[in-house]
Automatic annotation (TrEMBL), chains A, B:
<keyword id="KW-0663">Pyridoxal phosphate</keyword>
<dbReference type="InterPro" id="IPR001544">
    <property type="entry name" value="Aminotrans_IV"/>
</dbReference>
<dbReference type="Pfam" id="PF01063">
    <property type="entry name" value="Aminotran_4"/>
</dbReference>
<keyword id="KW-0456">Lyase</keyword>
<comment type="subunit">
    <text>Homodimer.</text>
</comment>
<protein>
    <recommendedName>
        <fullName>Aminodeoxychorismate lyase</fullName>
        <ecNumber>4.1.3.38</ecNumber>
    </recommendedName>
</protein>
<dbReference type="InterPro" id="IPR043131">
    <property type="entry name" value="BCAT-like_N"/>
</dbReference>
<dbReference type="GO" id="GO:0008696">
    <property type="term" value="F:4-amino-4-deoxychorismate lyase activity"/>
</dbReference>
<dbReference type="InterPro" id="IPR043132">
    <property type="entry name" value="BCAT-like_C"/>
</dbReference>
<keyword id="KW-0289">Folate biosynthesis</keyword>
<comment type="pathway">
    <text>Cofactor biosynthesis; tetrahydrofolate biosynthesis; 4-aminobenzoate from chorismate: step 2/2.</text>
</comment>
<comment type="similarity">
    <text>Belongs to the class-IV pyridoxal-phosphate-dependent aminotransferase family.</text>
</comment>
<dbReference type="InterPro" id="IPR036038">
    <property type="entry name" value="Aminotransferase-like"/>
</dbReference>
<dbReference type="GO" id="GO:0005829">
    <property type="term" value="C:cytosol"/>
</dbReference>
<dbReference type="GO" id="GO:0008153">
    <property type="term" value="P:4-aminobenzoate biosynthetic process"/>
</dbReference>
<dbReference type="InterPro" id="IPR050571">
    <property type="entry name" value="Class-IV_PLP-Dep_Aminotrnsfr"/>
</dbReference>
<dbReference type="InterPro" id="IPR017824">
    <property type="entry name" value="Aminodeoxychorismate_lyase_IV"/>
</dbReference>
Amino acid sequence: MAPRVLVNGQADTRVSALDRGLSYGDGLFETIRFMEGRAPLWSRHMARLLLGCERLALTKPDPEILLQEALQVCGGMPDAVVRITLTRGVGERGYAFAPNASLTRIVAGFAAPKLSAETWRDGVRLHVCQTRWSEQPLLAGIKHLNRLEQVLARHEWTDAGLADGVMMDAQDRVVSTVMANLFVMLDGALVTPSIERCGVAGVARAEVLSVRPDAREAELPFMALARASEVFLSSSVRGIVPVQAVGNTVYVPGPVTRALQAHWRGLGYSTEHA
Amino acid sequence: MAPRVLVNGQADTRVSALDRGLSYGDGLFETIRFMEGRAPLWSRHMARLLLGCERLALTKPDPEILLQEALQVCGGMPDAVVRITLTRGVGERGYAFAPNASLTRIVAGFAAPKLSAETWRDGVRLHVCQTRWSEQPLLAGIKHLNRLEQVLARHEWTDAGLADGVMMDAQDRVVSTVMANLFVMLDGALVTPSIERCGVAGVARAEVLSVRPDAREAELPFMALARASEVFLSSSVRGIVPVQAVGNTVYVPGPVTRALQAHWRGLGYSTEHA
């Protein structure tokens, strides 16, 4: 089914070929899961989007308008994913931009992807990516439109049995997967990689950190994964997903993973999977 | 004057709001100066574009079609700049892409910017940017659509007397300016920063390296700029532009700069500036 799309509030599927979002990746996006017209992590998505606007000196959008448009494009779908894209709009050729640039706002609704019951129960297998995150503190954390590293990393494998891939920085420190954040139980402590230099500060990651205030954001050398007792992913679309293997190292979903999956269900996200 | 635009060969000004060029910056571009329907550096632009296609696993375009479309959008303009943008087209939501993805091809013609005679003669002043290039060997050199670092760097100054800004990597090594490559005469040798880890391999840079085979690609610590006897920029749009100041350090255009400006004129680029 073709997604429903609004461009600047109007039913439309097209934007200017000279939009800076396309010319330079000059913008931001959010991918938000809606259950029966409700987005449990909405305020976290808006907080990240507004932080991104500050970092990129973009005019801040009105969250109330975004919410109305999001509801419009997912209306009728019981389990939907809404992508909101904000760009700096159409400008002159060149990197310079006017401070009062008029944004382009794209809101598109898709059916949420189905996770199998086995995935939720047993977990996923991960590829180990050769493509590394580059370090750029000015862009780390926010969900901007410059996503070629993840596109290249995702292109490394075609095996449908590999659901995602671990991405490191150039110093062999784990940062995230291509599509999600990653948590490990290490020496009895819950740890997730710092995203100060690279990576995306996921809203599901923020939710986990808020309900587990004992969790630490820290550097996570790839070698340390071998002695983790639990590994799981956090994703605003897919939720809390156990990891059963990273390359040849295998894991069994443990109590921390299960407790956070229960929290995820408690937020109102369906786990009635296909 | 609004630019003339072709999208996939058709007179059009719009593309899908779900194009991967906009969603992820998943694509490439070239900015090519045409003098009376002739682009002296055309083959260098095509070489870089095709290298970029290999790096990003994009289907290679037919250069003959690109040339015909470029001529079409700059027809009638004696001094034009044509931007060719190639994206991976419209795909499913998510970073994965099909190997046979149908590209989006945007060809847009603009009037070339005017440089003043004073700029050509006396040179430009450069800001020193705080924004650094991140290191990503997989993307270094090619002209992809992930350009937020340059957007942020260009946003650092508003003084119209500063024509461009020096950009370093995180280790205080000069890489380029925001909009051009940079050359220096250092201890009697012509040197330009290596672009193996970050930056764009400019086609004007390649032209300079081909006519000055003695030139070296090397690491260039920012501190070394202070003892350079000449500094100039190379840009396919602006040509060979002397630098008269980097921050508070001043330079006078020297014989190497002048000889390369003469070469540039010899290629057929107008230097009859406004």
